[in-house]
Amino acid sequence: MTNEDPDIFGGGSSVLLVNVIVNGKKGSIYIDESGKIGETCEGTNAGLKSEAEFIIDGNGAIATPGFTNTHTHAAMSLLRGYADDMHLQQWLSEKIWPLEAHLTGEDVYRGTELACIEMIRSGTIAFNDMYFFMDQAAKAVDEMGMKAVLCHGFIDFGDEAKRESEIKATEALYSHVKGMNNPRIKMATGPHAPYTVSREGLTWCSEFSKEKDVHLHIHLSETETEVKECIEQHGKKPAELLEECGCLTNKTIAAHCCWLDDAECELLGKYGVSPSHNPASNMKLAGGRAMPYQKLLDAGANPTLGTDGCSSNNNLDILEEVKFAALLQKFFWNSDTVLPANEAYDMITSAGAKALGFGPGRIEKGAPADIVLIRTDVACNTPLYNPVSNIIYSCGSNAVDTVICDGRVLMHENTIPGEEEILKKASETAFDLVRRKEDAG
Ligand SMILES: C[C@H]1O[C@@H](n2cnc3c(O)ncnc32)[C@H](O)[C@@H]1O
Ligand SMILES: [Zn+2]
């Protein structure tokens, strides 16, 4: 790839990608100034060469739709390696929540910047994020040029005063994101999970999501214990409780979904929910069961893929995650045909984009130019019988060369502007957060 001009990172310019493999054929992609795909064609298209402000020579790269991560806690990048090898409830209540009590907006800003760097490096252009101080997450996403659906993690533990403050935080995020008027950034409600949010809290979130036409993002049935406790407390299984509270719609993204039974899979299918499979986190926190992918798909749900946060994964590499997904499904369900490469690819492209409402997740005329170039002159892409097979089973993020989101080049020739400074600041911020917690005792 040849273009060395730093202005290529500015956005708002027309770009012609030549010498790429697009939808299985050698060709070119023209991106117009509005950030949409103007045309895709075979060959180099001499006519469009004179129109484009920038020409990127893909040198035979695979052009794929950018990837979507449908469940993460981006700023938890600061907690990478802080608490490993523990069971979920102990991990959350003894290590994570006590540290998060010391979080500031600055921490979330720096952590989200770091997360964006990591996601861009693996070809991710959009993500679904649940955390705190989300106005600061929005600032980072805006500057880094990615797309995101952001929600405040709403946790009330049945306490009315806490519920009121979570409602205020959610309403404030709604106003803030609306004021940004940036189509790349949306907000959602974020009831954390049926075990941390009261019926009243769940109902408020579902009503707010419907009233404002925004997504709802929740953790669902990650562990067997939480399912048992839900039945004891509410006399219902978790997905039934969510249905009763109005939380199941086609704008719901439900993370994990490991312990859903067949009837609950049918419920998610009936409402067109998007489950987010998080295999690395589930394996690391020893959840004991993999998401019933095939049952959810057959029921009509829209299965997608997420990394979860950096404290339970411990990275945000969607290419690593998609291989884990394809392997874990086969291993856990003892089936060599479940989640084949083409369906795994759909999870991180079209299904992910559909879940978050960010276009078709395909390279086609009129679609947002969310395009990733994956090098083919590397060992993991040699030989190249089947690009989709290689993307799912053999490519690492080191093969990702160029990332374009809404027509803006975020990474080119493996370079992201400002990366060095972002990593330095994130490291300082992480150590400062841990020091503040230790000082507080
Ligand atoms: C937003 C809150 O969610 C917490 N969190 C991070 N990972 C998980 C997980 O796998 N299950 C449940 N909750 C999780 C995060 O630390 C925030 O407190
Ligand atoms: Zn999570």
UniProtKB/TrEMBL annotation:
Coiled-coil region: none
Highest taxon of source: Archaea
Cofactor needs: Zn(2+)
Record has Metal-binding as a keyword: yes
SUPFAM superfamilies, alphabetized: Composite domain of metallo-dependent hydrolases, Metallo-dependent hydrolases
Stored InterPro entries: Amidohydro-rel, Deaminase_MtaD/DadD, Metal-dep_hydrolase_composite, Metal_Hydrolase, MTA/SAH_deaminase
Family: Belongs to the metallo-dependent hydrolases superfamily. MTA/SAH deaminase family.
Physiological role: Catalyzes the deamination of three SAM-derived enzymatic products, namely 5'-deoxyadenosine, S-adenosyl-L-homocysteine, and 5'-methylthioadenosine, to produce the inosine analogs. Can also deaminate adenosine. The preferred substrate for this enzyme is 5'-deoxyadenosine, but all these substrates are efficiently deaminated. Likely functions in a S-adenosyl-L-methionine (SAM) recycling pathway from S-adenosyl-L-homocysteine (SAH) produced from SAM-dependent methylation reactions.
Name of this protein: 5'-deoxyadenosine deaminase
Naturally occurring in which organism (per UniProt): Methanolacinia petrolearia (strain DSM 11571 / OCM 486 / SEBR 4847)
